[in-house]
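ping. complex inputs:
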Amino acid sequence: MTESNINHRSRGEALDGPHYGENAISFSGRLDYSYDVLFSQEDILSVDNSALRDLTAGRKCMVVMSETVDRLYGGRVRDYFRHGPESEKCCILTIPVGENTKNIDTVMRICKEGRRFGLDRRSLFVAMGGGVLTDVVGMASSIYMRKLNYVRIPTTLVGQVDAGVGLKNGVDFDGVKNFIGSFHPPVSVLNDFRFLRTLDAEEIRNGLAEIAKMAIVADAKLFSTLERNSREIVDYYKSGTNPDLTREINISAARRMLEQLQLNPFENSLRRLVDFGHTFSPFLEMHTDHRIKHGRAVAVDMAISTEISYLIGRIDARLHDRILSMLADFGFNLNEGGAYDVGLMWQSLDSILLRRGGKLNLVIPTGPGKADFLSDRSELERSVLRRAIENISGFQTAALK
Ligand SMILES: NC(=O)c1ccc[n+]([C@@H]2O[C@H](COP(=O)([O-])OP(=O)(O)OC[C@H]3O[C@@H](n4cnc5c(N)ncnc54)[C@H](O)[C@@H]3O)[C@@H](O)[C@H]2O)c1
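pong. complex structure:
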């Protein structure tokens, strides 16, 4: 089998602990885990490909998918397991899942169905779908009998380069995005580019936003590649033309993401480059009741953060224009009009501070493939945020002329 395999290995990090005094004895445990993020060249649903069956062999498993994924790929998944030796051990659960049902009720439903099917501590969940689906199944796996192993099969571009790659999962709570969640590494992530062909252009753009995020903050070469192909790239993904390029882009983005995660797998440090594009975006998504989807919100956030960097003199006009033009060329509308309520956006930073230990840690680009943080909220003036928003709307209007 020809494939690219990125192995994510990590050791638990030491934190500065309390000092117990001379007579105290303390033991420290070490957390050790690893999982593979596989980019398969071969069809992972081909009955001849045993990659998935090898993971499910000898145990009960429940494949959970969304209605859309079931409609598109459910038949092939059923065929795949039917041809296996232990078909009775696997069942399929199809759930209606979307941003509006990304909540604890959906997690409970998965746990309940798992119990009905008789999943035990050795069993496996297989999460097959977009980031919402893999997040809710990951969350269910982390609490089902305290922990159940699970495999991710991401079927969206966001899933393959971002949501499916790391350790985190989460659901929305009390109007706040991903407020409840856990860190629960999958046993394996199986990526297959074929799934991306059935995505519409908007979903591809959502993934491109996450790829651009890694490129802008950590990979100047990837940034140049995206920039060179910015007008055709959506079509390349949709039509399957130029597969070597899109494959290389996905692998680079996932690799950069894993590099960042390896440094800080459980987010003991809340200064994270991968938070680029994720400071104002939760507000944009929730405020518009998910009319602005995750990837698009991330793109707008990256544009605002780039504009802020320019306004405070951390990047020159050329890099500013390169980043904004690339996002506009992908087809992102950076002018969200009604969604840009500066007062509410400013206020939403309170919940960002809650998540980041009282710090703002706003990631701003400082060079191609380089970034820095505005650590304290005092480093960002409300008037700068206002101007940044006005300017990106103006940039978009000019770009459309
Ligand atoms: N856990 C993490 O680290 C992490 C990271 C990034 C994003 N996320 C989460 O991921 C979510 C966004 O994920 P997403 O962008 O994949 O959205 P999504 O899961 O809502 O999927 C988008 C749409 O595409 C459909 N779909 C899935 N696969 C398809 C395919 N192959 N062909 C056609 N349609 C398909 C889905 O049914 C859905 O309607 C957000 O909730 C975000 O919070 C999590």
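The longest strand covers residues 3-11.
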